[in-house]
Structure prediction request, 343 residues.
Amino acid sequence: MRINRFFPVLLACWSMAVSAATPVDVFEFESAEQASRYRALIDEFRCPKCLNTNLSGSDAPIAQDLRRTVHRLLVEDALSDQQIRDFLQERYGDFVLYNPPFRPGTYVLWLAPVVFLLIGAFVLFRVVRQPPRELTLSEGEQARIAEIVNKAGRE
Amino acid sequence: MSRASLFVPLGIFLLVVAFGYAGFRLNDPHQLPSALLDKPFPDFEARLLTQPSTVVGRDALLGTPVLVNVWATWCPTCKAEHAELMRIARETDLRLVGIVYKDQPQLAMRWLNDYGNPYDLVLQDSDGALGVELGVYGAPETFLLDAEGTIVYKRVGDVNPRIWREEMLPRLGLLEVATDLDSASETH
Prediction:
């Protein structure tokens, strides 16, 4: 079988194609714990250029730079996770955090769901509590109905 | 059910339309609000493009208001704004500082030879480290600094005549960068 002979070659090509398609940074870490902190951090930050991708998922040059920066802060400067968050936030703003802080500028963002929930609860309460409406007819209306029924009975 | 309550759906509809309209008029989501506004320009060390042996720092930007422009030869928008920077350099006495962002010095030098050099000072940021300090996420980006080195304005994207007239001139007026510049740019 011809295919069989070429299969290993195909497999090799395929694996090369796969590795070329994912962003690969060659970074060294002092410990496995440090490496996993690094991975958690680059998953956490949002790439400033690409709106809906995190640093680990983006191939944008700025994402590469920021991954390198996170690595430097983590390994060389030995900063804590929170210090690294602050570093990036100071420079790139809340945008890089998927989880915006609670402060006057973001009150609407955080509180709007609560307000809507309260409105919903109020409306629900009103609807449920409302007693079923009783049908009361005035004397005139009752007389008219009697008249109609009578008339129908005669016919 | 009162007659007035029939208008509730219409009211909700109008509310949705108003939100949608406001949403479309919001700023471009690609324009990040600058975190560095009203903060001091960060400390840095950078080599001069023309004399790579000379390293300058933040001091080089102090003393007078200055326009700091982050650019690169690989950036088409930088080409588009170059003419406006040349005009600003020619017609005002605002000091212009260029930062060559993630680019090769030779290419940057050739660019300045070919298209003219509007900058009083050109710094190199080959690996983008200064860019990270500045929160740069793409070129071009332009900062206006007062004489103390505080960032009073940041523009992501090109500096065009409209941005210059509506955003930068009023701020420069506050910084008292020669008001005769206004007339210079208008008579042009």
Summary: The longest helix of chain A spans residues 107-129. Chain A has two domains: 22-101, 105-155. The radius of gyration of chain A is 34 Å. Chain A has a mean pLDDT of 84.
